[in-house]
Amino acid sequence: MTNSVYGIALSGLNAARSGLATTSNNIANANTVGYNRQQVIQQARPSFGSDIGYIGQGVDIESVQRVYSEFLNAQEQKATSEYAFFNAKYSQISRVDGLIADDTSGLSSALSDFFSAAQTLSTSPGDLPARQNFLSAADSLAGRFNSLNAVLDDLRAATNLQVKDTVTQINDVTGQIAELNDRIVAVKSQDFNSGAPNDLMDKRDALIKQLAEQVQVTRVNMDDGSVNLFLGNGQPLVVKTNAFKVSTEVDPQDPKNLLVGTTQVVNGQNRLITLDPSTLGKGALAGYLSFRETELAEYQNTVGLMAARIGEAVNTVQQAGVDLDGNAGQALFAFGTGSLVSGVSRVVPNTANSTTNPTTVSMRSIDLSKVSAVDYEVTIVGGQPQYRVQGSGSPFTAANLVNDPGGDYYEIRDSSNAPILSFQLSNASPQNGDTFTLMPTRDAAQNMRMALSKPNEVAASSTTNASVGNNENIKAINALQNQRTLFQSNGAAGVSISDAFNQLVSKVGNKARELKVSTESREVLLNQVVETRDALSGVNMDEEAANLLKYQQAYQAAGRVISLSKEMFEQILQIF
Hints:
With about 575 residues, this protein is α+β, with helices and mostly antiparallel strands. It folds into three domains: about 5-65 and about 540-575, no CATH class; about 75-210 and about 295-345 and about 445-535, no CATH class; about 345-440, no CATH class. Helices cover about 50% and strands about 20% of the residues. It contains eleven helices and 21 strands. The strands form seven sheets. The protein has a four-stranded antiparallel sheet, covered by helices on one side. The chain has a four-stranded antiparallel sheet with strand order 13-20-15-16. The chain is elongated.
């Protein structure tokens, strides 16, 4: 029957019916997100040999395929990750931009009021109201540093929440992808079904694109129909039907920070192996982590450095003079209850450090005129410390790291051999691989407070006769406004505290504009890729309408052939 006119017509009827069904499905899913239009792939049946030659036997449906481009899909996935990365960073830094430049929350007005109060006091150093005004301005300055740091801490907490939500979405999506892998492999392994489960594959691709918004992944297509997904550092997220979760936990050494990583068994215990933002590529997760570890850390360190430096400089002048009662001047600002170093700095050990005979690192000294607004990583190699600037991606080095003659501490020096900071190890035999983060000025703005409470304690004079007009000391404090007291490493002239704040405002503003441009350009690129993909794989209603007409006519024609075949068969019966 297959090589009869009736069989040939029936095969054409089935092909036209399949075409109509596929076209109808395309039209129904025209607005379905992630849907790739489908098309019927027809194949002519092998011809039947006869004494007059080969006669066709009709048509078969080889498959129903998605109109799909692996290349365009990969481009869209990459563009999605890049846009999400820059958009995440821009959304966070734009908040810092508005905060730093605002007079009510920034430092500009508080610095101006402090030095203005010092100038006023210098004109009448014995005047108690002027002294009280100076103390009030100093207290306001310390409070402004406190509040600015608190807002930056709040932004850090908000970023941590974004990170946590992103990780939750990653785990949810990877779980669904692993489940779809299982279903797709099961369908493709069925002997009676040689086609691909197009709808399941569309759904999986849509989930992978959704995952790409959160984190950049490398996709590897497997022969059985499953896909494997890996992070930029090679960490697997999905392997066949298994999903590997990303975890978050509060840093036990720094409660204000949220660690992100994968849980692995180390020495018989589950331990979070943290992910380095620089190895994650793009995506929202990398954007949030990058902002927190680079821009936010730098800005908060800069604010802390300014607080520590102005506090140190003012205290030095204050303690060189005498107060209204003829007593030696005392520090105007304090940073916690201990030393200046302990009040402004922080040392964070890595959670993966050895717990057997553990080593601790403590800050010993900081040259606030030379240190930059950066953190340092120190690791133990061959029993000796090496260091690098955190987030630089540079290898650890012992260059410019000098052990003092007694072996009690180590100094990080600049290129001119001037000490920047020094630290001590508690263990003479530290474990190789142990790592510590040194934050020279992270806590300064948080801990800054007034140490004086009485107007007569202001050391405005350099002698004991301040009541009769000596103002040398308060003039020296006022002069600090324009003195270059920061960023003097490597022989640089340095900048004043006021200029340092203005540079911070400019840096934040420029970075915000840079990220805005990058976000907008990536959005344009993403839209272009999506348009190109849609032009190939999207449903075109005009094209589908033409297909409906084409398959309708083919269906009618095949039906007419069947009708003619019936008439011919009836005529043959009448003959016999």
